[in-house]
Design goal:
210 residues, mainly alpha, MetI-like fold, 8 helices
Length: 210
């Protein structure tokens, strides 16, 4: 399959990479910012946390009928689904991490003259990074699961579309080839995320970076 159908596979990989990168990137940015706001601001948490708890348990794939009705193209709807699947765990765990920071850290920083901006950027966020990375790992797996489903529902290319197309013709060798590619891509992204986590959280091993 890799020798005969490599051109189509490369096109599908490119389409999937574009869709996933836009959806995952926008999802984690919104989720991270929203999580910091939820964990830091009591007012924002009062209004935002019930909404997050309401939509959080609902699988992202359950929003497919609504998204394809609200968005003009399937590509935009797919981006929203991937962003939703990746952003919700990041927001929840970021909020939990910021909210669980030891209050003594804030008191010490205020004693040394720190303002609210410093407390958020240099105290709350670094202390919440372990929780943030847990949310990133969860969001990565959820986004890939939703990505395949989204591409099966109207995409012109992509690995999810390729799986559906080849399954319809009972070309199971092509299906297995695409699954192997998806597994390698996902495992590679997980490895990169582990490397980023180990570098950013090196202070947990007793090494403080200034």
């Amino acid at each position: 399959v890799y020798i005969v159908d490599w051109q189509r596979l490369l096109i599908c990989i490119a389409y999937t990479a574009r869709l996933w990168s836009i959806g995952f990137g926008s999802g984690i940015v919104v989720g991270f910012v929203g999580g910091v706001a939820l964990g830091w601001s009591k007012t924002f948490s009062y209004w935002g946390m019930p909404i997050l708890k309401l939509i959080g348990p609902v699988p992202a794939s359950a929003w497919i009928p609504a998204t394809f009705f609200l968005f003009p193209t399937t590509f935009q709807a797919s981006i929203f689904l991937v962003a939703l699947a990746s952003g919700i765990p990041v927001a929840i765990l970021t909020a939990s991490g910021v909210n669980s920071v030891n209050r003594a850290y804030y008191d010490v920083a205020r004693t040394l003259g720190a303002y609210s901006r410093f407390l958020v950027l240099r105290v709350a966020i670094p202390a919440a990074l372990p929780n943030v990375f847990v949310g990133l790992f969860m969001g990565l797996y959820y986004s890939f699961a939703v990505l395949v489903v989204a591409e099966m529902l109207g995409a012109k290319y992509g690995l999810g579309w390729y799986l559906q197309f080849q399954t319809a013709y009972s070309a199971y060798a092509n299906v297995y080839a695409a699954l192997i590619i998806m597994a390698l891509i996902c495992s590679g992204l997980v490895k990169l995320l582990f490397v980023a986590r180990d570098r950013l959280l090196s202070w947990q091993r007793g090494v403080v970076q200034w």
